[in-house]
Amino acid sequence: MGVAIRTAGEGDRELVVRLLDEAFQDDPVSRWVFPGEEYRRRTHHRLMAAFTDAVLADGWIDLTEDGAACALWLSVPGEAHDEEGDDGPAAVREAVDPDNERVEQIARLTEGIHPAGRAHVYLWMIGVAPGRQGEGLGTALIEQVLDCCDREGLPAYLEASSARSRGLYERLGFAFTGCALDLPDGPRMWPMWREPQQGARQGTL
């Protein structure tokens, strides 16, 4: 039986924020950005809200019908279009937690490793409710977009935030770019690129 998926709208904002907050509370990168369990519980959801708003404005969010998993996607053009005076990372820090420089730092570091010069789709985040992980919901969300990428000849890109997720993404056709991002005094992230392809994929998220 397939997984029913729909595109999230503004009315799904709070559901998506809550889902991402729960799914990433124990993620290595989230723990680095918001050290301390109590601090993370109080503040982490603000960053998830900022991400959700950004993708609702400029990309799209796929959501399983049961609300147990979501994926945040952006279409990235081949040519960069930086708006003069625009400083997204600083604005996010100001909105989320002005005293936490890591909120801005993670945005700048990931921007710095993002591939340029070729149009692609970017999997910004994918979240599965803690009690529903391992059921294939995340895989279904990703495969739906990868199938479109293969038909349209588009590459895909993401950053894996754990060794486990890196292995799962590899089974979906992503390959490590060869240049890891080691957060200062923190965990490693793996930038991963996927060329459009044909053939079976295996893996369960």
Please describe what this structure looks like.
The protein is an alpha+beta fold and 205 residues long. The protein has helices at residues 13-24, 28-33, 37-58, 88-96, 101-113, 137-152, 163-171, and strands at residues 5-7, 60-64, 69-76, 120-128, 156-160, 175-176, 181-182, 188-194. Strands 1, 2, 3, 4, 5, 6, 7 and 8 form an eight-stranded mixed β-sheet that branches.
The rounded distance between the terminal residues' Cα atoms is 16 Å
How large, in whole angstroms, is the Cα Rg? 16 Å
**Approximate helicity band:** 40-55%
Q: Give the ordered list of helices and strands.
A: EHHHEEHHEHEHEEE
**Structural class determined from secondary elements:** alpha+beta
> Mean pLDDT, rounded to whole units?
92
Largest sheet: 8 strands, mixed
Note poorly predicted spans: 200-204
Q: Give a count of the beta strands, DSSP E runs of length 2 or more.
A: 8
% residues in beta strands: 15-25%
Count of separate DSSP helical elements: 7
Q: What general form does the structure show?
A: globular
